[in-house]
Design a protein that fits this description.
hydroxymethylglutaryl-CoA synthase activity, 3-stranded mixed β-sheet, alpha+beta, Peroxisomal Thiolase, Chain A, domain 1, 17 strands, sterol biosynthesis, 9-stranded mixed β-sheet
C-alpha cells in the first residue's frame, strides 16, 4: 500500500506576454483603481496566436520531466484538467502522448476532466486515488491543469489569464494529501457557462457567481470541519491550519473568502476569535445565510477583523494569481506554487488547506501536510525549478491596444482551419512549444523552440 501519497514535483508555465491592469483601466475608460483595487489585480497574462493550452501543456510537461530527471516510461497515468475546449472529442491528453510515444511508452491511463475551474482538482484526485488504489502499477501519476481564460470586451475582460501547471503524483511525497479531510459541495447553477461552441467567451452572471463561490465555501468548510472533528475528536478552526490557498478568479474575492471563513469560525465557536473580533462580528450573528452574502457591512467588518491573519495565512499564495490573472483550472495550483515560492524554507510540518471552485457548480476543500522531502523531490528544489521570479520578470508588457488587437485575431481564429501562424517565437523562452499551423482538416501542428542559438526545426507534432 502506497504511503504519504501526494505531489512530488511541480512546474508552471505562463505566457511571456502580459498587459498591466492599470494601463487597461485607462484604455477602457474605467475609473482609476477599478481593476487594481476593485478586483485586486496587478497584471494579466494572455496567449498570442502562437500559444494555446496544448502548446503550454507540452511545454510544462517536457520541462517537468527534463528538470526533475524523470524518464517518460515512469509515468503510468496522465490526466489533464481544462475547460478550454480545443476539440469536442479528442482530449488534450492525446496531444501530450507525443512526448511519451517518443520513448516507447503508450501504456498510460487517463483523459481530460472538465467542469469550469474545477477540472484540475478532479484530475488531481483521480491520480492520487489511482496511486492509493489496487490498480496502481508502481509508476507515477502526472496531472496537468491548463487554461486560456479570455472574455469579451466589457467588465469581465480584466479577469482573464493563462497558464499550465504540471504535478507529479506518487508515494513518499513532500506535499502529502490528508485524504480523510475533504469537504465537497456540488449543485446545479447557471453562474458561468460556455454553451456557445462557436465562441470562446462564457456567459457570466458575475454577482451570482460570487455568491455561489461564497456559498460553496461555507458548505465545504462545514463538511471539512465535521470530518476533521469526527476523526480528530476536537473542533477545527483556522488556527489548525498554517496557510489557506484559494481558487482566485480575482484577488478581491480571495480577501472576501478568507474573512468569510473567519466569520464561520465566529458563528461556530465565538471563543475561536479574540474579543475585538467578537465585538465587531456580533451584530451580524443573527443574519440569515442569504442576508449575510449580501451584507456590505458584514463584508467590511469581517475583512477588517481578518486582515492580520489574511496577511500571514493567505497573502503569500497570491503572487502569481495577481500577476497572471485567473488561469481557471491552473489558478488554485498557481496560488499554491506562489506559496511554495515564497515560503519553501519554512513550510516543513505545516498544514495547508486548499479550496477549489468551478462554476456550474463544483467545489472541494481539502488538506495537505508538508514534509521537506528528499532531493529532487524537496521544497527548495521545487521552488528552484519553478523559478517564479525569473518567469515573472522576463515577461514582455504589451500596450492595451496591442492586447485588444491580439484578442481580435484569436477571436477570428477560434474554431478556424487552414491557417498558418506567424511562427514568431522571438518572445518565447528556448524549449517552449508553439503552434505553427492548423490544416484544412483542423489538425494542429506544433514546433519546439530550439535550446541553442542555432535555428533548428524542433519536434513537430502529428509526424509532420
Amino acid at each position: 500500500m502506497a504511503k504519504n501519497v501526494g505531489i512530488l514535483a511541480m512546474d508552471i508555465y505562463f505566457p511571456p506576454t502580459c498587459v498591466q491592469q492599470e494601463a487597461m483601466e485607462a484604455h477602457d475608460g474605467a475609473s482609476k483603481g477599478k481593476y487594481t483595487i476593485g478586483l485586486g489585480q496587478d497584471c494579466m497574462g494572455f496567449c498570442t496566436e502562437v500559444e494555446d493550452v496544448i502548446s503550454m501543456s507540452l511545454t510544462v510537461v517536457s520541462s517537468l520531466l527534463e528538470k526533475y530527471g524523470i524518464d517518460a516510461k515512469q509515468i503510468g497515468r496522465l490526466e489533464v484538467g481544462s475547460e478550454t475546449v480545443i476539440d469536442k472529442s479528442k482530449s488534450i491528453k492525446t496531444f501530450l502522448m507525443q512526448i511519451f510515444e517518443a520513448s516507447g511508452n503508450t501504456d498510460i491511463e487517463g483523459v481530460d476532466s472538465t467542469n469550469a475551474c474545477y477540472g484540475g482538482t478532479a484530475a488531481l484526485f483521480n491520480c492520487v486515488n489511482w496511486v492509493e488504489s489496487s490498480s496502481w502499477d508502481g509508476r507515477y501519476g502526472l496531472v496537468v491543469s491548463t487554461d486560456s481564460a479570455v472574455y469579451a470586451e466589457g467588465p469581465a475582460r480584466p479577469t482573464g489569464g493563462a497558464a499550465a501547471i504540471a504535478m507529479l503524483i506518487g508515494p513518499d511525497a513532500p506535499l502529502v494529501f490528508e485524504s480523510k479531510f475533504r469537504g465537497s459541495h456540488m449543485s446545479h447553477v447557471y453562474d458561468f457557462y460556455k454553451p456557445n461552441l462557436a465562441s470562446e467567451y462564457p456567459v457570466v452572471d458575475g454577482k451570482l457567481s460570487q455568491t455561489c463561490y461564497l456559498m460553496a465555501l461555507d458548505s465545504c468548510y462545514k463538511h471539512f470541519c465535521h470530518k476533521y472533528e469526527k476523526l480528530e475528536g476536537k473542533q477545527f478552526s483556522l488556527s489548525d491550519a498554517d496557510y489557506i490557498v484559494f481558487h482566485s478568479p480575482y484577488n478581491k474575492l480571495v480577501q472576501k473568502s478568507f474573512s468569510r471563513l473567519m466569520f464561520n469560525d465566529f458563528l461556530r465557536n465565538a471563543s475561536s476569535v479574540d474579543e475585538a473580533a467578537k465585538e465587531k462580528l456580533a451584530p451580524f450573528s443573527s443574519l440569515s445565510s442569504d442576508e449575510s452574502y449580501q451584507s456590505r457591512d458584514l463584508e467590511k467588518a469581517s475583512q477588517q477583523v481578518a486582515k492580520p491573519l489574511y496577511d500571514a495565512m493567505v497573502q503569500p499564495s497570491t503572487l502569481i494569481p495577481k500577476q497572471v490573472g485567473n488561469m481557471y483550472t491552473a489558478s488554485l495550483y498557481a496560488a499554491f506554487a506562489s506559496l511554495i515560492h515564497n515560503k519553501h524554507t519554512s513550510l516543513g510540518g505545516n498544514r495547508v488547506i486548499l479550496f477549489s471552485y468551478g462554476s456550474g457548480l463544483t467545489a472541494t476543500m481539502f488538506s495537505l501536510k508538508i514534509n521537506d522531502g528528499q532531493y529532487p523531490f524537496c521544497l527548495s528544489n521545487i521552488a528552484a525549478i519553478m523559478n517564479v521570479d525569473k518567469k515573472l520578470k522576463s515577461r514582455h508588457e504589451f500596450l492595451p491596444e496591442k492586447f485588444v488587437e491580439t484578442m481580435k485575431l484569436m477571436e477570428h481564429r477560434y474554431g478556424a482551419k487552414d491557417f498558418v501562424t506567424s511562427k514568431d517565437c522571438s518572445l518565447l523562452a528556448p524549449g517552449t512549444y508553439y503552434l505553427t499551423e492548423v490544416d484544412s482538416m483542423y489538425r494542429r501542428f506544433y514546433a519546439k523552440k530550439a535550446k541553442d542559438s542555432h535555428y533548428e526545426n524542433g519536434t513537430v507534432a502529428n509526424g509532420h
